[in-house]
Design goal:
The two termini are about 80 Å apart. The strands form two sheets. Strands 6, 7, 8, 9, 10, 11, 12, 13 and 14 form a nine-stranded mixed sheet that branches. The chain has helices at about 5-60, 70-85, 115-125, 160-165, 165-215, 230-270, 275-285, 310-315, 315-335, 365-385, 420-435, 445-450, 495-510, 515-530, 535-550, and strands at about 95-100, 105, 130-135, 140-150, 155-160, 295-305, 340-345, 350-355, 395-410, 415-420, 440-445, 470-475, 485-490, 560. The chain is elongated and about 155 Å long. Among the domains are: about 5-170, Beta-Lactamase, CATH 3.30.450; about 215-270; about 295-460, Nucleotide cyclase, GGDEF domain (Alpha-Beta Plaits). The chain contains 15 helices and 14 strands. Helix 1 runs antiparallel to helix 2 and helix 9 packs antiparallel against helix 10 (about 365-385). It is about 55% helix and about 20% strand. The protein has about 575 residues and is an alpha+beta fold.
């Protein structure tokens, strides 16, 4: 919106409101005065008629003619003649009605309509002495009246409402015309003067528009007045001169910025194949921070193809590479879709982690779901391998959860964004234990506890059933003396498996309480539900052995692993 119209929007209402207030004040004063005079004159007429009627009756009474009907009629005729004489307009009517509303006298032709009688008599009977309005003879009229008891009549002096308020209506029309005329004149004058005031601003805008579209910083605005608009033009010219000086520098910096952006895009495109996108974004946001290690609680996953050496010996190199590429593509997509970071490939193994460089509330749970997804995806991969006559892949996955050191590790010439620490080693050892415990997926006790904390958000889709966990053992991996509980996990169980896993977990509680006979009974029930279950058979054998030859005092149920 242009500034001249803004000026008009601000100023015009002030002018119009002022005009309206002034004209309305004059209008109300004039209308009130005219109405008062008209009402007073109407009151004067009715009072004169009332006095004359009383005088006529007084003459009858003085001469003892009040009881003669012919003399009373003569007095009524005299009143009618007097009423005709005091009329001041053709539309004015003086009439008389009896108690039933019948017309007894009128100075002009008049017919009281039936529907008017009731409302008219009601108003007349109130006798409040005020000016009244109502329909008489099919016309809205203003009237005054009085009841003359000797004649038993209502004498009414009335005037058409339009005629009564004619002068007021004329004043109203004149007032509206004057307000409209004054408003139009104000709009025209205000438009003219606002345009005169804003023309210098318009020239500044025009020059600026020419500079923007033509990129010609040599344009200048003429200084016309020694006022604020003149100062604006002068300072505008100074600003353009300074912009002209800076323009070359801006173009040079813009060119350098484009080159830097293109270089950054090329770096991103190259390194996103090797480094997570979140890590690249963090590096460009704060390059210096990426050289500093950080201790964080992460979930670490190791996945390995079992018997890969044997598989590679039986496959041509190009077939092996193609199979590995398809396998890695599916597995990596699963990890990244679950917010994980693929740290590295170690031959046929995959190392991944969750919780860095960006932490999420459900990193622990997502790591478990990724492991389950990887196992599920392997079925489709193996189906394709069978179709093309290639060997199937079988994998073991180990996941741990705890504090590790994460950051750029290496030398100035070669660095990796990776994680190191005991939890990394534990995850690697647990992946190896999947062979020992005949399980595709093992998770650590810390990971199990994390996903079972009440305050941890479980962002699992509604279609995903509740995860099922089975405690398999407490082990001390090679190189460690302290034991950790290990669990296997599935998305769903058959009815028999569900009963068996519950019995197995109960048996583990009895086992750790040294109730070996009762524990053996539980594991025997597991084998009844799931014949040939390796872990139940293993623990049953332990319980039987410990029943006859109990372990020493201080036994904590830890199995020390001798191999990786």
């Amino acid at each position: 919106m242009r500034i001249r119209f803004k000026i008009m929007i601000v100023v015009l209402p002030i002018i119009i409101v002022t005009l309206v207030i002034a004209e309305m004040a004059s209008y109300f004063t004039a209308a009130k005065g005219i109405t008062r005079i008209t009402q007073q004159f109407l009151s004067f007429q009715i009072n004169e008629l009332h006095n004359y009627t009383e005088n006529q009756w007084a003459l009858l009474v003085e001469n003892n003619y009040a009881g003669r009907p012919d003399m009373v009629l003569a007095a009524q005729n005299a009143v009618e003649l007097y009423a005709r004489s005091i009329r001041v307009s053709e539309t004015e009517i003086i009439c008389a009605l009896d108690d039933e509303g019948n017309l007894m006298m009128t100075t002009s032709p008049l017919e009281i309509l039936p529907e008017e009688k009731v409302s008219l008599l009601t108003m007349l009977q109130e006798e409040n002495g005020a000016i009244m309005q109502g329909g008489i003879g099919g016309t809205e009229r203003v009237f005054r009246a009085f009841y003359f008891t000797p004649f038993r009549q209502y004498l009414i002096l009335s005037e058409e409402k339009a005629a009564f308020y004619r002068d007021v209506d004329q004043i109203t029309t004149q007032t509206v015309i004057m307000i409209l005329g004054a408003s139009i004149a104000a709009v025209v004058l205000l438009f003219f003067f606002s345009r005169l005031l804003t023309n210098p601003l318009a020239r500044v805008i025009k020059t600026m528009d020419a500079i923007i579209h033509g990129a010609d910083l040599s344009s200048r605005v003429a200084v016309e007045y020694r006022d604020e608009t003149g100062n604006l033009a002068y300072t505008f010219n100074i600003m353009i001169a300074e912009l002209e000086k800076a323009y070359q520098q801006i173009k040079r910096h813009a060119f350098e910025a484009v080159l830097a952006q293109k270089k950054e895009q090329r770096i991103r495109q190259i390194f996103q194949k090797y480094v997570p996108k979140d890590l690249i974004d963090k590096f460009f946001a704060a390059p210096e921070s990426m050289l500093v290690g950080d201790n964080r609680v992460l979930a670490i996953l190791f996945s390995d193809i079992r018997g890969f050496t044997t598989i590679s010996e039986d496959m041509a190199p190009d077939d092996l590479v193609n199979s590995l590429n398809r396998y890695f593509s599916g597995q990596v997509d699963i990890i990244m879709n679950r917010q994980g970071i693929v740290d590295k490939y170690i031959g046929d193994a995959i190392m991944a982690f969750w919780g860095a460089p960006v932490k999420h509330d459900d990193d622990a749970l997502q790591s478990i779901l990724s492991g389950l997804d990887m196992i599920d995806a392997l079925s489709g991969f193996n189906e394709h391998q069978r179709q093309i006559g290639k060997p199937e892949f079988h994998i073991g996955i180990g996941i741990s959860y705890g504090i590790v050191t994460v950051g750029n590790i290496g030398s100035e010439r070669k660095m990796d964004y990776t994680v190191i620490g005991d939890m990394v080693n534990l995850a690697s050892r647990m992946e190896g234990l999947t062979k020992t415990y005949h399980a595709e997926l093992l998770i650590s006790e810390t990971l199990y506890n994390e996903v079972h904390r009440p305050e941890v958000p479980q962002h699992v889709p509604e279609a995903t059933p509740e995860l099922c966990f089975r405690l398999l053992d407490t082990v001390a991996v090679k190189g460690k003396t302290k034991g950790v509980k290990i669990y296997t996990v599935k998305r769903s169980l058959s009815e028999a498996e569900g009963i068996a896993w519950t019995l197995h977990n109960q048996g583990m509680e009895l086992y750790y309480r040294r109730s070996f006979a009762e524990g053996a009974h539980k594991f025997q029930e597991v084998l009844t539900m799931v014949p040939g279950d390796f872990n139940a058979e293993n623990l049953l054998a332990r319980c039987v052995a410990y029943t006859s030859n109990p372990p020493p005092q201080g036994w904590d149920g830890v199995e020390v692993m001798k191999t990786k």
